Amino acid sequence: MVALKLGSIVEALGGRLLGPAELQIAGLAPLQTARADHISFLSHPRYQNQLANSLAGCVIVAPAFEAMVADRQAAIVTDDPYLYFARLTRLWKSAQHPSRGPRIHPSAVIDPDASVAADAVIGPLCVVERGARVGSGSVLKSRVTLGEDCRIGDRCIVHAGVVIGADGFGFALHKGQWEKIEQLGAVRIGDDVEIGANTCIDRGALDDTVIEDGVKLDNLIQIGHNVHIGKHTAMAGCVGVAGSAHIGAHCTVGGGAIVLGHLTVADHVHISAASVVTRSIAQPGQYTGMFPLDTNANWERNAASLKQLSRLRDRIKAIETRIQDNKEN
Q1: Please, are residues 81 and 61 in contact by the beta-carbon 8 Å criterion?
Q2: Is 27 helix (H, G, I), strand (E, B) or coil?
Q3: Is residue 246 annotated as a catalytic residue, yes or no?
Q4: Measured in Å, how far apart are the chain's first and last C-alpha atoms?
Q5: What is the pLDDT of residue 138?
Q6: Are 250 and 231 a contacting pair, CB within 8 Å?
Q7: Are strands 74-77 and 16-18 parallel, antiparallel or unpaired?
Q8: Same domain, yes or no, for 117 and 249?
Q9: Measured distance CA(216)–CA(196) in Å, rounded
Q10: What pLDDT does residue 292 have?
Q11: Is 0.90 topped by the overall pTM?
Q12: Partners of 209 in the beta sheet?
């Protein structure tokens, strides 16, 4: 384990250091479990009690909490402690695990007609098919499959087991049997995208499936064919997005949520976990939709009634008020 001096951390990441620059930091830890040679952070006022009881040798805090760390051995004051800690984790990992080993693992299979940037890293058992492209600084962890003609931008991280460019789910029903529709598009992934383990992104039927810059996808997500996801949108685990849905920029989608096909979701929309998006959303905001399983006919009737509940409530209140007035008169 390589220790880092506080001075070197502040030199690399900025912030205002309170305490000795020579103090050695041996690890990163939460406030509750940190030791005297650990660095931790306070990002929300609700954790002030944890700060008071923490043994951390150094705590990253916002200016508003500077007085609370005045008696500590060391602290780093910065406008956004959580962001600072995020950057510290990357600095720490690079110090503890400097890149080593072959840039392209011997077990990887790369088609001669694929293009892999000179500084990209291709892990064990990866497959990069004909015409595919991997951009500068991108990392493919073990067992990633990049299908033919699919493109990954710069500085992307693709975790183990991801499949990019499998055929979309396209079939035509003819006389009770399904006939395959060849998926002739590809997948285009922008820069600074991170894709979690075992996520699948299908190629487009005609046009490409598009994942724009800065998108973050968790594990076990399914992205259907011809989906378009806007910049800096983030999706938690087990989300499913059906074919030809268009999701805007700076959206979030909670774990297990579903977006049905051919819908449009505006920028800055936030979908709660386990919700099912059944209609397009034109306005930014937080949306939640959960309903017990039922026969479709009953579900539709109940859903229609549910939309009227607030109006019915107001009518009932008005009736109750009139009844009360009549009793008093």
Answers
A1: yes
A2: strand
A3: no
A4: 82
A5: 98
A6: yes
A7: antiparallel
A8: yes
A9: 8
A10: 65
A11: no
A12: 187
> Domain check: are 154 and 245 in the same one?
yes
Q: Which of 208, 263, 212 is nearest to 233 (CA)?
A: 212
Question: Cα-flanking dihedrals φ and ψ of residue 64, to 5°?
Answer: -65, -20
**Per-residue confidence (pLDDT) for residue 5, from 0 to 100:** 97
The active-site residue, picked from 97, 105, 159, 225, is: 225
Cα separation, 39 vs 72, in Å, equals 12
Q: Which two tokens stand for residue 96?
A: 């503890």
The domain of 322 spans: 300-328
Q: Which long-range contacts (CB under 8 A, 24 or more apart) does 213-217 make?
A: 213/153, 214/190, 215/190, 217/193
Tokens of 100: 């080593």
Per-residue exposure over 121-134, b if at least 16 CB sit within 10 Å of its own CB, e if not: bbbebbbbbeebbb
- From the CB of residue 44, how many other CB atoms can be counted at a distance below 10 Å? 9
Residue 302 has which token pair? 């109940």
In b/e form, how buried is each residue of 205-216, taking b as 16+ CB within 10 angstroms?
beebbbbbbbbb
Per-residue model confidence (pLDDT) at position 83: 97
Place of tokens 């309903």: 291
Count of H-run helices and E-run strands, the chain: 5, 35
Q: Which amino acid appears at position 276 of this protein?
A: V
d(CA 281, CA 243): 16
Q: Which two tokens stand for residue 197?
A: 């383990």
Do 198 and 278 reside in the same domain of the chain? yes
* pLDDT value of residue 62: 97
| Predicted pLDDT of residue 301 | 86
Low-confidence ranges of the chain (pLDDT < 70): 99-100, 292-293
CATH number, domain containing residue 141? 2.160.10.10
319 three-state secondary structure: helix
